[in-house]
Every structure is written in structure tokens, then in C-alpha cells.
Amino acid sequence: MKKTAIVTGAGRGIGFGIAKRLAEEDYRLVLVSRSEENRYAEHLDLLRRSDTDFLYIQADVSEPSDRERCLDLALKKYGRIDVLVNNAGIAPKVRRDLLEMTEESFDTLLRVNTKSVMFFSQIVARQMLRQEPTEGVRGIIVNISSMSAEVSSISRGEYCVSKAGVSMLTKLYADRLAGEQTYVYEVRPGIIETDMTGAVHEKYSRLFEEGLCPISRWGKPEDVAEAVNLLCSGKLKYTTGQSIDVDGGFQIKRL
Fold first, then answer.
1. pTM tops 0.85, yes or no
2. How, if at all, do strands 28-33 and 139-144 pair?
3. Strands 83-86 and 4-8
4. DSSP-based three-state secondary structure for 131
5. What CATH number belongs to 4-246?
6. Distances in Å between the alpha carbon of 67 and those of 62, 84, 98, 207, 235?
7. CA-to-CA distance for 173 and 231, rounded, in angstroms?
8. I want to staple 9 with a disulfide (CB 3.0 to 4.6 A). Which of 64, 87, 209, 220 is the partner?
């Protein structure tokens, strides 16, 4: 039986990389994005050419009604949810020193990056618990956070706090759902080459040349997607609440 995966923020970047990789594993996909479908026509045509069975939903997962609508539409089309990948997220519109951060920016990032993960996971987990297990698994949730959950960046403190919150949500949901054959994981991307990092591309390209990471290159969405695919496989049934750093070895302590 084919499995169904919801991927948020799926139109481009890391989200589309994850969707594309899961499509290669023959998942049925529910792709969620705030933008209209025609914005990602090229990406969606690629999925169509590979005969991927998918549903595109334009929705803002920071809105409760949109989260409910996404789940309702997914169930109406596919009947069950095997995987939820909470990938949707934003960066601050303006990078400001911690002493200049605005409450508006803080509230916006917590609402989009953290609160949406909390409450989308909640309604999808409830659905997963109503389902019969497939190969010993009722469901899998993978949260895409960031190395910023651990690494300080004082010009975007609200982003760091929002991703640290995702890390704790991973542990909380893993703890709550472990006895229900439902597993929860976290992937922490490092410096990944996407639209979000376009403004700092020159800076980080130089830092890679200077030895910023042991693996001295930009990360790709495909690198993150491979980690997500492993966690979604259902093969790690004695593992939950864990995180994988996809960061080129950035967090290795070196002399």
C-alpha cells in the first residue's frame, strides 16, 4: 500500500527537495505552500512527468483554519496520513542586533516557525492514532529545524528561538507518541543553498573556502531530503526524539 506524506513549505528549496525525494520512494504527496500553484509550475510539472500522485494545497499553516483544511483535503483524497514533514518556515525580514529586535518580528517567527509545528502536529497526530499501523508504524513526524536551534546568531535571535522551540516540540511529541507506534524526529539543516540564503551567498562561499565546515561546500536541499527519507522509512523503530545535523560537520568542536 502506498504511503501518504504531507510536506509543508513544499513549493521550493528544502521542502521541494524533500517532496521530490519522497516521490522517488512512491509516496502520495500533499504539498502545502502559501503561494499559488502556478508559482511553482516548473517543479510541479517535474512531479507530473514522473507520475507522482500529489495534491497541492495553497494554505498558511500558521492559520488554524488552514491547518484543518489541509488535513481534511488530504484525508478526503488519500484516506490516511503516514508522514508529516513540518518544513514551512521563515527568516526575519530584517536582521537586527538582539538589542534592536522588534516584538513584531519575534511574534511573527514564533507563530510561523514554532506555533504552526505545535498545532499541525497535534491534529495530524490525532489522526495517526486513529489509523491502523502499517508495517508496525501508525505515523512518522519529521520536523525541519535548523542548526540555529543550537548555534547562536545575535542578528536573528528570533529565528534561533523559534527553531529551538521546534527542537523541544520534537522531544515532547516523541515522548507522548512513543507508545503509540508513532515516531518523531528532527532534521537540523546547516548552511543550505536556497532562496533564503541567497542574500548571504557571497559571504558563506568565502567562509567555506576559509574552512568554516569540515565538509567545505554549500549544503543542498537534496542533502536534507536524504536524511528525511531515512527517517520516514519506518526502519528506525527503536529510535525517536532524535535529531540529525545536516551541516557539513559544522558543529564538530575543532582546534
1. yes
2. unpaired
3. parallel
4. coil
5. 3.40.50.720
6. 8, 12, 31, 39, 28
7. 15
8. 87
User: Which of 150, 31, 9, 202 minimizes the C-alpha distance to 90?
Assistant: 9
Q: Clarify whether 238 is annotated catalytic.
A: no
C-alpha cell at 177: 507518541
**Mean pLDDT of the chain, nearest integer:** 96
pLDDT for the residue 208: 87
CA distance 114 to 89: 9
For 62, the 3-state DSSP assignment is coil
Of the residues 27, 40, 78, 159, only one is catalytic, namely 159
Smallest Cα–Cα separation from 247: which of 159, 167, 172, 188? Answer: 188
Number of residues assigned to the chain:
255
Q: For the sheet with 54-58, list strands across it.
A: 54-58, 28-33, 4-8, 83-86, 139-144, 182-189, 243-246
Cα angle for residues 18, 168, 204 (degrees, 5° grid): 55
Where do the domains of the chain lie?
Answer: 4-246
C-alpha grid cell for residue 97? Answer: 542586533
Query: In the predicted model, is pLDDT for residue 192 greater than 80?
Result: yes
